[in-house]
Amino acid sequence: MSGDVRGVVSDIVAQQAPEELPLVDGLARLDHEEAVRLLKRRNTSAPLGFGLAETAAVITPVVWLAVDEVCRASARTLVGGVLAGLGARLRRLLRTPPAPPPEVPALTADQLPAVHRRVCEGAARAGLEEAAAEVLADRVVARLALPQAVTPVASAAAGPDGDAGPGPGRAS
Description:
Blueprint: H1 5-16, H2 21-28, H3 32-42, H4 59-78, H5 81-94, H6 112-125, H7 130-145
Helix pairs in contact: 1-2, 1-4, 1-7, 3-4, 4-6, 6-7
């Protein structure tokens, strides 16, 4: 797994367009489904309403929607699209707290080129030049290909600074 949608988007935006991080933060305060609806609607020139200059934001919507699409495709495969949509409707009806953003599934080597294509297409629609779209797509694929961060566990043989050199109780 690569983390949740918001984390992946935040990582990529921080690298590619750090000036858009306030938009990512604003979207992170919303329910995931609401954020996706706003970003999709943004394609029709409707404002997001955070009081920011969202019109300059290009990278965030492209990446968020592409990563969300990966999650939805995976959910349709594993659970079925009907159940996923029904869950969101039931939460709204019952006014339960919003579900956390979806976890991005581990992708196979065959799925990554499709993600690359999707990002390039979205970036082109958003007005990015082809070279910039390729760089963005490469970063998204690289981030999605990374395994989830694992906290290293110090081995019993390692010293206090993490090396395996001489320490108390070990021969030098």
